[in-house]
Every structure is written in C-alpha cells, then in structure tokens.
Amino acid sequence: MRYVLAICLIAASCLAADYPAPTEGDFTAKNFKFNSGETLPELRLHYATLGSPKFSARGHLVTNAVLVLHGTGGSWKQFTQPQFANELFGPGQPLDATRYYIIIPDNVGHGGSSKPSNGLHMRFPKYDYDDMVAAQHLLLTEGLKVNHLRLIFGASMGCMHSFVWAETFPDFMDALMPMACQTVQIAGRNRFWRDAVIEAIKLDPAWNNGEYTTEPIAGLRAAQYLLAIAGSAPLFWQKRYPTRDDADKLVDTQEARIKALDANDLLYQVASSRNYNPSPNLEKIRAPLVWINSTDDFINPPEMGIPERDIKRISHGQFHLIQATTETRGHGTHTWAVFWKQYMVQLLKETAGRD
Q: Which fold has domain 22-185+279-350?
C-alpha cells in the first residue's frame, strides 16, 4: 500500500500524519434525469477514495464507509489539506483510513465531474441539490457497491446535502455531521449575495449568454470579491492583515483565484441552492446527527437562532456553536478539524454497533 506524508505548515500543534494515498476514479450514470426534466445521456462523477470497504458478519452490508461532501466551488482535493487530512485520516485518528472507507465525490458541476464548461455551457441541465444527492447515491450504490454509510460529513454545501440525505434516505446512514449551514431555504442576506454573484457574471458583456471566448473577468472579479467576503473571518483577518498595506495585498491575492474560475460553472454552482429547504421534513431524520456552526460565519450568522430552534425537531440531534477566536476561519472553520473533531469522535463512539 502506498502512503503519503502530509506536512502541516500552519501550526505547531498540527502534527503530520501518514495515511493511505487517495485513489481517484470515475463513474458514469447513464441517462440521468434532473428535477428540471432535462436529461444528460452520460453524467460523469469523479471521486476519490481512501481505505477499503469492510462488510458485516453476513457479508452483505458495508459497515465502514464514510461519505465526505465538499462545499460550493470545491472538490475532493479540499479534504487533503493539512488542516483536515492531518487531523482525521492518520493512524488512530477519528477517520483512520486504515479502518474506514472514505469516499469523497466531486459533485455535479464541480471538479472532475460533468459541468457546463465541458462544452454544453448554459445548455447544461439546471441541477439542484436534490440532483446532486441523487447522483451521490448512484455513485455509492451502483458505482462503488456501497449500500450503507457509517457517517456522512458535509461542509457548507455538503452540510446542506447532509440534510437532504437524512430526509431522502433516512436509513442509509448511521450518523450525520453537517458543518456550517442552516435548515431553511436560502433567503435574506444569504440569497442576496448569491444573487449578486450571479448577476455580476451575467451583466458582464463578455459573458455573452454563456458563449464567451474569453472569461468575463469583470464579472468574475466582482463575484470573487463577494465570495471572499462571505468566507471571511473578522478576527483572523484582523490578526493576519493588521495594517492597511497588508489588507491591500489581500485584494491582490484574489487575482490568482479569479483566473482559476469558469463563469458558467460558478454561476451554476451558486444557483444550485435555489430549491434547498429541509425545514418541512426535519422530523423524518432518524439517524443521530451532530450539527456545528461557528459564531464568525458570515453566511450562517448565529444571531438568527435557526439551529437552536430546529434541532428540537430532530429526534437524535445535537447542535454545537464554535466560538470565534483569532484562529477560527469563519465559514471555513468547517474544514479546520482541530476546532471540532472531538464531536466527531463522540458521535462515532455513540453510534458504534448500529450496523
């Protein structure tokens, strides 16, 4: 077995961890029908796995599979960053990849999976979160022959996918750990900044209704600045960029990120949240669930009080709120495992043997 050594560059308390190298693959779903009524003859789903499946005593049920779901604009690669992988995947760690079968898909419209920039542009089916979860289910059951999940971990968009999973396939998993989201439809300020991202792209003349020959940079620049603000952490940013000149350099660093964006892909990614609303069916959630948000999250501000209200409707649910410090990362705290991995350990312990 090959191993990789992930080296932590960010904090003395973060130790390097060796874990099995990810294996990448592709699964093709034939004639995939979207909620919009559109059909794609071949929907490609790219994914990575760590570890290998284990089966129940009778040999028919996978007992150690963990589904890890990324956020808007992300891919499986975000979970190989030291702040996540070094804390979770190594020997003796919460998701020890020698014990668990970790599955990390690139969701529809992201990474190596089918997306508008592959050629269809704005003719690509208008996917939503239900479509993305349906595709994940197909990848597991038909592509990887996984019929049960030990845990679903989701960050941001993946957090919302976790709630969709919990209501759509309530007996498929032993436990869920949604990180950084709400249980209501995307509205208020959350909807506004997403609409602003979409409109910034569409109002750039270079966008040309999605048939651009060069990226609409003005629209993408405005979109990226909005994304940066949404993902910002005020205490951490003030510590990291304490002077005017430091903050000005932060603006300059966004240019590299802008160059990595595709306008149609980003537009679809942000728009895919439009139908999300698990609120009416929270009572359908049966698996134990630990939901975690952060006080410095611009996208999910704590003063709304939605988790404290809605967790009461989930029969085996817990909610925890991470307090902001100069080290937390705002919305992005969802992938800094040092702040919340103790809750994962407890959740896995409490749900052991449910299979």
A: Rossmann fold (3.40.50)
2-38: b or e for each residue (b if 16 or more CB lie within 10 Å)? eeeebebeeeeebeebebbebeeeebebeebebeeee
Percent of the chain with pLDDT over 70: 95
Average pLDDT of the chain, as a whole number? 94
Enter the tokens of residue 166.
């919990």
**How far apart (Å, rounded) are the C-alpha atoms in residues 83 and 96?**
15
> If you count DSSP H runs as helices and E runs as strands, how many of each does the chain have, helices first?
10, 10
Given this model, what pLDDT does residue 14 score?
40
Dihedral sign (CA 255, 257, 261, 265): negative
Residue 298 burial (10 A CB sphere; 0-12, 13-18, 19+): middle
Instruction: For 188-271, give the CATH class.
Output: mainly alpha
When pLDDT is averaged across residues 245-267 and rounded to a whole number, the result is 94
What is the arithmetic mean of pLDDT over 323-340?
A: 98
Please, are residues 321 and 293 in contact by the beta-carbon 8 Å criterion?
A: yes
> Domain boundaries in the chain?
22-185+279-350, 188-271
Average pLDDT rounded to a whole number, residues 16-34? 91
